[in-house]
Amino acid sequence: MSVQVLGLGTAAMDIVLQCDELPREDGFSFIHREQLMPGGSCANVLVALAQLGVRTGLVAQIGDDQYGRIFLQDLQESGVEPTGVFVKEKGVTLHTFITVAKNGTKAIFAHLGDSLLTLAEEAVTEEMLEGVKVFYTDMFAGQAALKLARLCKERGIPVVFNLECPPSFMALCQVSREKLEEILSLADLIFSCREGLVELAGTEDPMVSGPQVYEKYHPGQGLVFTLGDKGSICFYDQGRVAQTGVFQVDAVDTTGAGDAFVGGFIFAYFLQNKDRELALRFASACAALKCTQLGARLQAGEQDVWALLNRG
Length: 312
Description:
Blueprint: E1 5-8, E2 12-19, E3 31-39, H1 41-51, E4 56-63, H2 66-77, E5 80-88, E6 95-100, E7 106-111, E8 134-137, H3 142-155, E9 159-163, H4 167-172, H5 177-186, E10 189-192, H6 194-201, H7 206-217, E11 222-226, E12 232-236, E13 240-244, H8 257-271, H9 276-291, H10 302-311
Parallel strand pairs: 1-4, 1-8, 2-6, 4-5, 8-9, 9-10, 10-11
Antiparallel strand pairs: 2-3, 6-7, 11-12, 12-13
């Protein structure tokens, strides 16, 4: 089965620990509930798209451990095509420990394992791109992601890159500055965390660093980043700006809200041909709905998103 959106990147299991509040340094907090839930930013984006009715496929490597087996089963049940998921013999799957407070704030500890970042460049092939409308990556693993991104540029397939971690952290995950510069140059649309913009531009103000990063790499479809409770913004077309606010909801867990946002924007902009401002609003609604749910993945369909949008 051909897919509309192919993603290469993080696949993980999350151990979610619910507590009253996050402990201060040298402090403690009581855990009221523990849950093992599937996650991984790239997988979360693809599941969000699948919830919206999009055919999606994941390229990643997991271990043959308990975490990997549970992840793979859930991925299939979530409607994401798993044929690009490789299983490393005696491998350890990326897993995280996420503490979530009652107000939705969180802290994340990641165990990288030995599988995700060792996906070989030779494992990915041009055949994976048959019928693909959009290629999405967070550069985990970097060399394999670059290979598919280069092939996409040759085929005219839009490349979407999410700089979800700052360059200094990416370097710890075997993504050198040279590799990062290449994917930033190949990308048609860039999503970035605030810390990523700061490191790339050298300034704390995202309204300054955003345009600087856009002008350096000129992604054809724009540079998108979020501003917390101030909403989200997209720089595009040599200085033009699209911006939107946030939806007020009772937050349960903010984990994965950014992934739901990315999935929502890809859906609205690339697959529904909405303009950037409406795509930002749709993405913001996806993120808001995710915040009302425990776990890292959006559990809402397109009608739910439009209902929130229409409600304002």
